[in-house]
Amino acid sequence: MVERFGDAAVRVTLPDRAHAASVLRALRETPGVIDAIVAEWHAVVTFDPGRAPDGIVQAIERTLATTAPPLARVEH
């Protein structure tokens, strides 16, 4: 889930078992993103206020989809 967090930021709910360092690196490399702060369950992403937030949100969602870890394999 992505929600507005002021005029130039969004708060993102991270996928389960997201690897924080990978998510942080990927978010910071997303075009239009100025910086990101990643915590256990959420990230706050700041972006250029001159860019349309919808485009940033879509880019963030694509980034999270590609950095989410594969499901763990359980062996018995």
Question: How does this model look, in words?
Answer:
The chain is an alpha+beta fold and 76 residues long. It is 33% helix and 26% strand. It has helices spanning 20-29, 53-67, and strands at residues 2-4, 9-13, 33-38, 42-47. Strands 1-2-4-3 form a 4-stranded antiparallel β-sheet, covered by helices on one side. A hairpin with a 4-residue loop joins strand 1 (2-4) and strand 2. Helix 1 (20-29) runs antiparallel to helix 2. The radius of gyration is 13 Å and the shape is globular. The termini are far apart. The mean pLDDT is 80.
SSE topology sketch:
Elements: E1 2-4, E2 9-13, H1 20-29, E3 33-38, E4 42-47, H2 53-67
Antiparallel strand pairs: 1-2, 2-4, 3-4
Helix pairs in contact: 1-2
* Physical arrangement of strands within the biggest beta sheet: 1-2-4-3
> What is the H/E string?
EEHEEH
Q: Based on Cα principal axes, name the global outline.
A: globular
Query: Can you tell me the residue ranges where pLDDT is under 50 for at least 5 consecutive residues?
Result: none
